[in-house]
Amino acid sequence: MNNTSIAGMKRTHMCGELRLEHAGQTVTVNGWVDRVRDNGGVLFLLLRDRAGIVQCTFDKSVNADLFDIAFTCRTEFVVAVKGKLVARDEAAINKKMPTGEVEIIAEDIRILSKAETTPFEIDDTKEVG
Fold this sequence. Notes:
Mean pLDDT: 90
CATH class: Mainly Beta
Largest sheet: 5 strands, mixed, barrel
CATH architecture: Beta Barrel
Number of helices: 1
Number of strands: 5
Low-confidence stretches: none
Radius of gyration: 14 Å
């Protein structure tokens, strides 16, 4: 499958809508990559849309090809991610995020649009000169 096609990746939820009551569902979200964190074999993409942010998790030991695609993502790339929404472990809950009790265990990712690295961080809470 072409990893730039949106075929079969129709959005089921907005990123910021996902909550604990949705756990167990297969969800598809579309949005901008807000942050990328690489924890050595486990990659976290924070995906943002107008409703908020959700964490998407890619585990190299589960699916190396999917991990490699996600690894190429940078901030402001537009992607579609499909996966199982699960409750985070108690120690991993992020109380600062409305979606902090859940994460998407990715089963598919499509890069819909790449972006050049921005000259400054895109964040409404920071002053840029």
